[in-house]
Amino acid sequence: QVQVAESGGGLVQPGGSLRLSCEASGFTLPFLAIGWFRQAPGEERLGVSCIADGRSYYDWSVKDRFTISTDNAKNTVYLQMDNLKPEDTGIYYCAAARKEKTTDQAMCMRVGAPPDAWGQGTQVTVSS
After folding, report:
1. Is 18 helix (H, G, I), strand (E, B) or coil?
2. pLDDT tens digit string along 62-118?
3. Which segments of 41-85 are extended strands (E)?
4. Section 116-123 average pLDDT
């Protein structure tokens, strides 16, 4: 059974940076698709960036500002967020799925099988 746990949220000024971490357990990263999702108050959960089988997908709103990466030794996926904007504010959730069930793009667009696990979320607030 796969589980994930996020860390690294906080308060940052516009233009600043944060790095979120998602540590997986139960399965190693080569067998998983991992995604980062953002939920702002009153809005649906949006797929921000997802990675599977070495391919990565980014929502257009974060492309060229956010970078998703993996550290297999730590079984951890990172989301480096640069040039943050107030509209990036929300709770960021990590999700995991067995990679045979989905792709990076399908996972982020929430098409097909749902993730096998969700983290508890970490708050990111971008404000001056």
Report:
1. strand
2. 999 999 999 999 999 999 999 999 999 999 999 999 998 999 999 999 998 899 999
3. 46-52, 55-58, 66-71, 76-81
4. 97
Q: pLDDT band at 60, cuts 50/70/90?
A: very high
What proportions of the chain, in percent to the nearest 5, are helix, strand and coil? Answer: 10, 50, 40
Handedness of CA 21, 27, 28, 30 (dihedral sign): negative
Place of tokens 């097909």: 112
Both tokens assigned to 87: 């509209």
Amino acid at residue number 51: I
Query: How much is the pLDDT for 42?
Result: 92
d(CA 45, CA 43): 7
Question: H helices of 1-128, where?
Answer: 104-109
Separation between Cα atoms, residue 81 and residue 58, nearest integer Å? 12
Residue in the structure block whose two tokens are 């099988």? 113
* Residue 6 bridge partners (DSSP): 22
What values do phi and psi take at 29, rounded to 5? -55, -40
